[in-house]
Amino acid sequence: KEQMTVRLRLIFWLGLWLLNACAPAGLQAALTPEKLYQKVLPSVMTLEVKSQSGEKFIGSAVLALADDVVLTAWHVVADARSVCAVFADGQRVNVIGCIDYDGGRDLALLKLEKQLPYRRAALGRELPAVAARAYVIGSPKGYDFSISDGLISQIRSVKGFLQYQLSCPISPGNSGSPVFNQRGEVIGIASWTKAGAQNLSFAIPT
Q1: pLDDT of 73-119, one tens digit each?
Q2: Residues 16-66: pLDDT tens digits?
Q3: Can you point out the beta strands (E) in 103-206?
């Protein structure tokens, strides 16, 4: 009888674990903003960029796809002579090249000089719903690793492809910032804002 009880308990907990592991993304529990920030912060970086003419400016990016692959906006690095990634814990890693880019969609994949295990962010595989909560972490006006929140205001075709219209506040320095859903998955990369408007920004779906 005791063995049967133990087996039933094991089956119950195993089933519960499998249900959670295999649950559709939309059914997985949302994180509080505090827990989300703690979870994803190791993957977020500030990019210190020096242009071909020697001008210095900053952007943002996220470690994704592999332990040495950075996802950012192409316009952040399009004219770069050198790029250094700076993480929240102070670690500095040089970017050694561009793996690939899409100038039309304003996305770029960069390669770091070394792998950084346990930092990589997960990518969202589904389109979010309109009005879903979204979070942006980046370096607005140089205030690095700042988080802002808002909504997916709309998903619309701009320049011939889908983009996320966001209500999250985004400023210069946020270009290339990851946009996270409530589960801490990267769903987009901050690209541009509408001049003369309030909180009218756009991100490229990952």
Answers
A1: 999 999 999 999 999 999 999 999 999 999 999 999 999 999 999 99
A2: 555 544 545 445 689 999 999 999 999 999 999 999 999 999 999 999 999
A3: 107-112, 133-138, 146-158, 161-166, 178-180, 186-193, 201-205
Kindly state the tokens that stand for 94. 């040089």
User: What is the Cα–Cα distance from 192 to 45, expressed in whole angstroms?
Assistant: 18
**Residues 137/178, Cβ–Cβ less than 8 Å:** yes
In angstroms, the CA 46 to CA 43 distance is 10
The catalytic site residues sit at 75, 106, 175
DSSP 174: -
Measured in degrees and rounded to the nearest 5, phi and psi for residue 144 equal -70, 155
What are the E-state strand segments in 67-106? 69-72, 80-87, 92-102
Structure tokens at 147: 């988080």
The rounded distance, in Å, linking the Cα atoms of 99 and 103 is 13
